[in-house]
Each structure stands twice: as C-alpha cells, then as structure tokens.
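User: I'll paste a sequence; please echo it back and then give the predicted structure.

Assistant: Echoing your sequence first, then the prediction.
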Amino acid sequence: MSKDSVPMFKFIVVGDQSVGKSSFVKQYSESQFIEGMSRATIGVEFIKKLVTVDKRRVELQIWDTAGQEQFRSMIKSFYRGAAAVFVLYSINQRDSFEKLQDWLTELHESAHEEIVKILVGNKSDMERNVQKEEAEKFMNTNNFSLFFETSAKTGENVEKAFVEAVKLVIMRMFTSDSFKNSIKTTKKTPASSKQNTSRSDQPISDITSFPTKPIQLQSNHTQENKHKKKECC
C-alpha cells in the first residue's frame, strides 16, 4: 500500500433484531452508549472511520444492517465488495444464537468465500443464556476467523474486534489475489493526511470519525403507502 494513499475497507454488521448491532457500531465509532436505545435500523445505515492500525492508515466504511426479515432480501446486495462481516448474537438471547445458521447461509450465498468472518457475542454485561464454549464450537465448526464477547455498553472488546479484523483484512490482501480483487477498496489521499502526516504513526485510540446520514431501504409496503399519499393529496 502506498504511503500517499489510504485504502477503504467495507465492513458489514449483521444479526437478528435487538442483538445490539447499532449500539455496537456506535460504541466503536463514537465511544458512546445510549441507554434504552431501541430504534430499529430501517434497511441500512453506515459510518466512515479513519483509523491507524500497525502504522497503516485505513478508512473503514461500516454498514449497520437491519435484522428484520422484511429487509433481508435487499440487504443481500450489501455483502458485495465487503472485506469483513461481523455476525452478532446476544449472549442473553438464546434465539439470536440459534438463528446464526440462517445468517451464515445468507452470507455464503451473497459474500465472497474469503470474506473475513467475525463472530460476536454482544451484551456480555448481561445475564448469560449462551455459554462461551457453545459459541467457540460454532466458530470453529463454521470457519470464523475471530470470536469476541463484547459489550456495547461498557465497550469491552468492541475496539479490539475491529482492530483485529483490520489486521486480518490487510494480511489477506497480501496473501490472496482473489480476495484483494473481490473487495471494495478505494485508495485516496485525503487532504487531512497531506496537512498532518504525523498522524500516521498515532495509536488506534486516536481516531477521526465521520458519521454520515442513514441510508434507508424501504419495504415495498412502505413505498406503496407513500405512493398512495401522493395520489390522494
């Protein structure tokens, strides 16, 4: 990778509704947790984040997807070009763990076979209904590269999960041409890096975040209702 350019990696976060995907992303991007945050993601939302890992500057484009069944078919297209996927379940919601196989089936149908897969048991600050040993067995059986139990509330292992994912993506880029050619990688030289090149050797904890407006994919039912309102008004 050229020192004058910053590669962009697309990460996607999937899992059942209410496992804490949005809180997981918000904790990483803004180091914040909103108590009682219950607004369901509609379609897909994303943020951009400029990070430094092992003295390499990388821009992450993190896609937070909806867990509702009605959006599943639309979300499949967002696997295209993704370098890594975080598959979340909640350690206090047994059913979210039991549905992981459904998410894996979708992932295998839509993503590149070499995509970096990270299994995440979120809400580790709550009472456990899924044992860690069960998750580790699931990880090994289904060839996940990494497994973390995280807490979007306390921040436990959230940053670590992303840092280790970035490291694996960079490593895989150098060892697999098919992976490198499959991922959505955009190299660019941001103005900020020209003005302050000393940032390139700063630690991962010193991160600039670029939140963006949500992208909302609407179900056919919602679109039909809007169309009817326009006709009658």
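The chain is about 35% helix and 25% strand. The domain at 8-232 is CATH 3.40.50.300 (Rossmann fold).
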